[in-house]
Each structure stands twice: as structure tokens, then as C-alpha cells.
Amino acid sequence: MKRCSTCNRTYTDPNLSFCIDDGTPLTTVETDDDTTVVRPRDKEEDEWNAVAYRPPSPYVPPGTDVKRRRRVWPWVVGLAGAFIIGMMALSVVALILVPRLQRQNQRVEVGPGVGPGRSANANTNTSATPGNANSNSTENINTPPPSDHDQVLAQLKDLENEWTVANLNADKKKLDRILADDYVGQSDEDGGLQSKAEYIDTIERNTDVEKWEFSDLNLNLAGERATLTGIITYFVQDRSVSFDFKDRFVWRDGRWQATGAELKRRGKVGTDL
């Protein structure tokens, strides 16, 4: 007879070596009393409580899961490293491209070749002097206003000549460049006022004036603001007409722009030269 040391169940089948309930190896014992002998089960009992024999599950040595987890961290480190390298590369590209884009935008805003300059039309004034600071196509919009009195006087005199040429030729594009957006000036001798848009919209070409000249120019300079007063005389065939003028300017976007104008007739049209 054999007995299971785990559940103390005994078996009389000499061919069994393991307990059919828990798989524990059976040990041989001597039978002292018939009451300890396990009787065979009947057929109904075997079918109701039949348990298929299963051998013990294989042994899994400790530490197997740890080894599997250790195989994951190289991938995590690799992905993190790739992400960091990618961000550094994007930063380098941004540092290179952003300044270039900014320079391109500045070129578009400033508009190379658009600045005021000598007009090549028939009404060009021969008394104008070269060296207009507003004609620099590479002007820097962040340039501080000039502070030298004589330099500013020369710049504004050249700008007055350009302004006159633009008026006589009804050059709206040039006038849009010369006049500031907040320009408000005298529209007629009666003192009426007009905005920049009204000025440009109502300007008409004048082909009668042959030449003009400035005299008694006086500059009042205060930082980025300047006021130029003087006399302008227009020559029409054998006649001339003169006006006292007072023009106001502001240094904006790296150049002088007109913000206002006043005009008053000095003599009568028809005065002999």
C-alpha cells in the first residue's frame, strides 16, 4: 500500500507512484488494519469527481522578469537621445534661417530703389544740389535722426525739390513716399486743410512751370522733428510768382517725411523777371 505525505490518502494500486490529487510522490507503507485500506471507487463516483493527472508545472527561476525589463531601457535611452539631437538640429537651423528671413522682410518693407531721388523729367530743377540722404536705397529704418543742422538743411532742401517735382508731374507714387501717413496740410490759400489721401487724390499735372528756386531758408531742428520755412518762386515763361512756405517734417523709418505744409502768396502773377 502507498500513501501521499501531503493529503495522507492511501492507494493500493502498485502501479501508482504519484498522488492523483496533488502529484506528491507516494511512499510505501505497511497495512496494519484493514480499516485503513482505501476501497476502490465505483464508476459513478469516478465520473463525478474524476481529476485528470497533471504533472507539476515547470520551475521558473527567479529574476527572469528582471532580465526582460532590462532589455527595454536601451530603447528608451536611444529614443530620448534621438529626440534631443533632433531638437538641437532644429534649433541650429532656426538660428540660421530666422536672421535671413528678417533681412529679406526688411528689404521688402524698405523697397530698394523706391526712395526719393532726382527726377529725370523735363521739370528737373537745375539749382538743386546732389547728396540727398533720402535717396539711399539701402537706408536703415532704425537709423537715428541726424543732428547736424547744415546736413539736415541740405537734406530737406533736396526733399523740397523732389516734392515740387512730384507736384508738377502729379507723381502720386512719389508723393505717397514723401508724405507721412498722418500728413495734414493747407489745401488752398483760404486755409482749408486736407489729408494725405485727399492731397494725392486731387493732385493734377502742371506743365506751365519751367523752373523754380528756394530762398531765405530757415531750419528749426528739434530731435526727430524739423520745420523748414522760406520762399519758393515759380517761373512761368516771362512771369514769376512767389510763396512763403512753412513745411513740417518728422524722421520716421530712417528718412524725413512731411507731416504738414502752409503756403501764402507773396506777390502777383505777372511780375516781370
Features:
alpha+beta, three-stranded antiparallel β-sheet, Nuclear Transport Factor 2, Chain: A, disordered C terminus, 273 residues
Structure notes:
The chain has 273 residues and is an alpha+beta fold. The strands form 3 sheets. Strands 6, 7, 8, 9 and 10 form a 5-stranded antiparallel beta sheet that branches. The protein has a 3-stranded antiparallel beta sheet with strand order 2-1-3, with no helix packed on it. Strands 4-5 form a two-stranded antiparallel sheet. A hairpin with a 2-residue loop joins strand 8 and strand 9. Helix 4 packs antiparallel against helix 5. The C terminus is likely disordered.
Please describe the topology of this protein.
Blueprint: E1 2-4, E2 10-11, E3 26-28, H1 43-48, H2 64-70, H3 73-110, H4 149-169, H5 172-178, E4 184-186, E5 193-195, H6 196-202, E6 211-222, E7 225-236, E8 239-252, E9 255-265, E10 271-272
Antiparallel strand pairs: 1-2, 1-3, 4-5, 6-7, 7-8, 8-9, 8-10
